[in-house]
Amino acid sequence: MSTVTGNGKAIPFLDLVTPHVEMERELTEVFQRALRTAGFIGGAMVEDFEKAFAAFCGASHSVAVSSGTDALRFAIIAAGIQPGDVIVTVPHTFIATTEAISQAGAHPEFVDVDERTYNMSPERLQEYLEKQCTTDPAGKLVSRRSGRRVGGIIPVHLYGQMADMDAILALGEKYGLIVIEDACQAHGAEYFSRKNDCWKKAGTMGRAAAFSFYPGKNLGACGEAGAVTTNDAKLAEKVKILRDHGQAHKYYHDMEGYNGRLDAIQAGLLSVKLPHLAKWNAARRERAGEYNRLLEGVESSVVRPHEPSWSRAVYHLYVIRTHDRNGMINRLKEAGIATGIHYPIPLHMQKAYDYLNYRQGDFPVSEKVASEIVSLPMFPTLQAEQQVRVVQEILRCLSVEMAR
C-alpha cells in the first residue's frame, strides 16, 4: 500500500480485499464444505470448476492444475512436443512462459513483439521461420541458431489482450508446428477470427492453452491455481495423468508424472468467483475506456494501450509508455498512487538465459517497450475519481518534464 504525502487517500495498484469481503459468506462455505467432507484433493469441487471454466471459455475440456506454470508445462508435454525441440515465444513476458518450456525439456527461442499490442509479431515470426530456419532431410524445420528441430509456438496473450491468432495459426499450420496459447493473463479475452468469421475466446484457438489463477489475475484463487483448456480429449486426458504422478488409476503409473493437482478448496473458491468474471471484465474495460478518455491529448508523451478492431481485451493490466518512466513512477508514489512495471528486463537479457547467447539489440521492440512501460492501478472496483487523481498526477509530471 502506498504512503500518502499529498491530498487524498492512497490508491492501490490492485484491490484484492473488496471482492473477497463482498463474497465472504460464499467463500467461507467452501472451506466449511471441505472440512465436513474431507474433500481436499480432487473430487466434486474440482470437477465442477473444470466443467464451468471450460463452458466459460467455450472449450471442450478444462483440466485444473496447481499453477499457471504447471498448466503450460503439462500442455507442452501432452501436446507431443519432443524433448530438445525449439518452442518459439516472445522475450516480453513473465519468465514462467520460458520456465515451462525448459522444464518440459524443450528449448526457448524468441521473436520480437508488435510495438502496439506488445504481443507476438506475426511478421517477426514469419521472418524467423523463413530466414532463421532450414529443413532437415526428413523435411522438419530446424533452427539455424541452435541446430534443433522447431516443434511449437507459444504466443502470450499479454496484459489481457489476445495475440493475432489467425496469422500465427496459419504459420503454425504451414510449417507443421503446434501452437499453445499462454492465456495466463487473458481470462475471457476475445479475438475476432477472420478465418472463421466469429469471435473466439482465449483458450480455444491453439492445440491447448494455459491459464493462471494467481490471486491478482482477473479470475484469481486464494493461492496458487491454474488450468489447461483444449478441444482435444486425448490431450486433456494426458494432462490429467501428468498432474497426478502419471497415474490413470491409483498406483498404476503409465509414465512418470508430477504432483500438479489443484486443491479442492481453491477449485471451490474459483467456482464461487467465476460467475462474476464477465461483470468484472466489463468493469475493467470501462475503467480502461475512462483512462483512455482522460489521457487524450497527450499522445506525444504517453502511449496508451492499443486495442485492434479484432480484439476485446480484458485489461488484466492497463499499461502506458512514457520516456521518463522513473520520474512518473516517483511522482505517483509521492502522491500515494501505486504502480507496477510488467516487465522491466526482457527475457533474452536475463541472467537465467545467458546460455541462449542472445545480445542486447536482438529484439529492439521488446527492449524499447521494457524501458518505457508503466502499469497503472487497474481493478474492477477502481473509482472514476481515483482515475482522475492518477491522471492529474501524470499530467503534472509531464508539465514538470516539459518545463525543464
Radius of gyration: 22 Å
CATH architecture of the largest domain: 3-Layer(aba) Sandwich
Number of separate strands: 16
CATH topology of the largest domain: Aspartate Aminotransferase, domain 2
Major β-sheet strand ordering: 1-11-10-7-6-2-3
- Morphology: globular
CATH homologous superfamily assignment of the largest domain: Type I PLP-dependent aspartate aminotransferase-like (Major domain)
Order of helices and strands: HHHEHEHEHEEEHEEEEEHEEHHEEHHEH
Helix count from the secondary structure assignment? 13
Q: What is the domain tally?
A: 2
Return the structural class: alpha/beta
| Amino- and carboxy-terminal Cα gap | 31 Å
Give the rounded overall mean pLDDT. 96
Helix share, percent: 25-40%
Commentary on this structure:
- 37% of the residues lie in helices and 15% in strands.
- By secondary structure, the chain is of the alpha/beta class.
- Helix 2 (24-37) runs antiparallel to helix 9 (264-273), helix 3 (44-57) packs across helix 9 (264-273) and helix 11 crosses helix 13 (384-403).
- The protein folds into two domains: 21-275, Aspartate Aminotransferase, domain 2 (3-Layer(aba) Sandwich); 277-403, Aspartate Aminotransferase, domain 1.
- Strand 8 and strand 9 form a beta hairpin.
- The protein has helices at residues 18-22, 24-37, 44-57, 68-79, 96-103, 122-131, 165-175, 233-243, 264-273, 277-294, 325-334, 364-370, 384-403; strands at residues 61-65, 86-89, 107-110, 133-135, 141-143, 150-153, 178-182, 190-193, 198-201, 208-212, 226-230, 247-249, 252-253, 311-312, 318-321, 373-376.
